[in-house]
From TrEMBL:
UniProt-recorded name of the protein: Thioredoxin reductase
InterPro entries xrefs: FAD/NAD-bd_sf (IPR036188), FAD/NAD-binding_dom (IPR023753), Ferredoxin-NADP_redctase_2 (IPR050097)
Pfam families tied to this protein: Pyr_redox_2 (PF07992)
Key words, A-Z: Flavoprotein, Oxidoreductase
Length: 304
């Protein structure tokens, strides 16, 4: 039978690494599993993170991994966790390939996947001039001609919001669900044009700068950046298979103080709990979960 570790962390993005550092500092035995696909891997620069403005996301995570090296009780494994089940008072964690680990507590920091619009040419632009989050990337495109991609009133809502960053916003619905009459009136009042033609492709430079949006009817509309609102979903179904309750948006419901889910002993932090979806918040939630887990382990040992 494998030795039992204190905490199994699944996910080595900002949330998981933040938790691992605090648990390492608390001398907890931790195994952190990660497949190396953080949500912002298409991005060139992290914005809005205190003290790290413009740092490459890969560099941020690489630095955290180096910082973790001094905590000898923390082990990093490049492995996909395929199943987690209850085992006595703890959990059994199974990886692809069959290796299993036992842990007293589980922390899921498995993140989300974005539904990037299926548009020709988007791949080389995504994360450079095509984005989903105005708080992350709006400032870099302030006062530029902006496109918003989205259907129905959700797309219209994002178009209205983008006026905070630029006076020149066009909403592209790509011939999908139409905007309600009420929203159409609000867009008109704010001088936001609605383009409901089908999009043929996004045209840009080789280094990822959007130049124009080519419509199926041949017309090209010049835009410098695009923001989209097509949604995101859980990267992993581990929280679902463990029975963790989710909210209407698919976020795992957690205690706001401890980050513990509805399943005792299973904690969820970072984007997977769908609070504010930012690196700073993921780091904060990872830290909160680490402190709560350490406290729970202290109580279990009669020390808390
Ligand atoms: C293009 C883009 C740009 C962004 N820019 C910014 C920005 O400028 N500023 C900002 O604050 N936020 C930004 N964000 C949001 C930011 O990426 C997220 O808030 C942050 O990555 C969340 O961290 P996390 O640790 O919760 O999840 P993630 O970073 O997604 O990490 C989850 C990790 O879990 C691993 N994993 C998942 N399932 C398993 C499994 N079963 N077994 C093993 N490993 C697993 C994945 O491989 C991944 O490494 C951006 C997002 C995108 C998409």
């Amino acid at each position: 039978m494998a030795e039992i570790c204190d905490v199994a962390i699944v996910g080595g993005g900002a949330a998981g690494l933040s938790a691992a550092i605090l648990l390492g500092r608390s001398r907890r035995h931790v195994v952190l599993f990660d497949t190396g696909t953080p949500r912002n891997q298409a991005s060139r620069a992290v914005h809005g993170l205190l003290g790290h403005e413009g740092l490459a996301p890969s560099e941020l995570l690489a630095t955290a991994r180096i910082e973790l090296e001094r905590y000898e009780t923390v082990t990093l494994r490049s492995d996909l966790v395929t199943a987690i089940t209850r085992s006595g008072s703890g959990f059994s964690v199974t990886c692809e390939g069959g290796s299993t680990f036992r842990a007293r507590k589980v922390l899921l920091t498995t993140g989300l996947i974005d539904d990037v619009p299926k548009l020709e040419g988007i791949e080389q632009l995504y994360g450079r001039s095509v984005h989903h989050c105005p708080y992350c990337d709006g400032f870099e495109h302030r006062d530029q001609p902006l496109a918003v991609y989205g259907s129905g009133d959700k797309g219209a809502g994002l178009a209205l919001m983008m006026k905070q960053w630029s006076p020149d916003v066009v909403l592209f619905t790509d011939a999908q669900a139409t905007v309600s009459a009420e929203m159409a009136e609000r867009l008109k009042q704010k001088s936001i044009e609605i383009c409901s033609e089908r999009i043929a492709s996004l045209e840009g430079t080789e280094d990822g700068v959007l130049k124009s949006i080519r419509l199926k009817n041949g017309r090209a509309i010049e835009r410098s950046a695009m923001f989209f609102s097509t949604g995101s979903r859980q990267r992993s179904n581990l929280s679902e298979s463990l029975g963790c309750a989710r909210d209407d948006d698919g976020g795992v419901i957690t205690d706001p103080v401890t980050e513990e889910s509805s399943v005792p002993g299973v904690y969820v932090a970072g984007d997977a709990s769908r609070d504010v979806l930012l690196v700073a918040v993921a780091i904060g939630e990872g830290a909160k979960a680490a402190v709560a887990i350490n406290r729970a382990l202290l109580r279990g040992a009669g020390l808390g």
